[in-house]
Design brief:
Blueprint lengths: L1 E4 L3 E5 L5 E7 L3 E7 L4 E7 L8 H6 L5 H14 L8 E6 L13 H15 L6 E4 L5 E6 L5 E5 L2 E4 L2
Parallel strand pairs: 1-3, 6-7
Antiparallel strand pairs: 2-5, 3-8, 4-5, 4-6, 8-9, 9-10
Length: 160
């Protein structure tokens, strides 16, 4: 089965052969997590760094924000059988979609910084990442193998 993750959304799967994908990561971040022993994986597509920017939206959809979405996402993974010590984490996105030096709000950079702070506080390591730049990315996670790859500017490559 193929699961599509929208903006401010997440999916968790536990059937080998399933693929989770999110399209057009710009300043948003895609967080892919896979537990090879439990054969559980998931993908989160967050768009803003802090829930304090809009607490009402954060209550209705915590996956919109890094600081509320990441903990909620990991809770879903744990509920599906994943264990923190075995989780392989891959991150993509956080680009400057405007290009050039005119990135007034630096949403991509701020998203990534918030994610790194959150991971550091919780002892979570990132195995691979493809962040920054100006190109949007489409990211895939295959359940059963943990294979993670991305497509950007017509090029496809593994994230490992």
């Amino acid at each position: 089965m193929k699961y599509i993750v929208g903006v401010a959304d997440m999916k968790v799967a536990n059937v080998a052969g399933d693929v989770i994908v999110t399209h057009a990561l710009g300043s948003c971040l895609g967080v892919m997590v896979y537990d090879p022993v439990a054969v559980v994986g998931g993908m989160l597509h967050v768009m803003m760094p802090q829930a304090s920017l809009n607490p009402e939206k954060a209550r209705s959809n915590p996956y919109m924000f890094v600081d509320s979405g990441v903990p909620a996402f990991f809770q879903e993974l744990y509920a599906a059988g994943a264990h923190k010590q075995r989780c392989i984490v891959v991150v993509a996105g956080g680009s400057n979609v405007n290009g050039g030096d005119n990135d007034r709000f630096a949403i991509g950079k701020r998203n990534y910084l918030m994610l790194r702070k959150l991971f550091w506080k919780n002892g979570i390591l990132i195995k691979a990442e493809d962040v920054g730049g100006t190109a949007p990315r489409t990211v895939y996670l295959e359940i059963g193998t943990g294979r993670t790859w991305l497509s950007t500017a017509g090029q496809e490559r593994e994230l490992q």
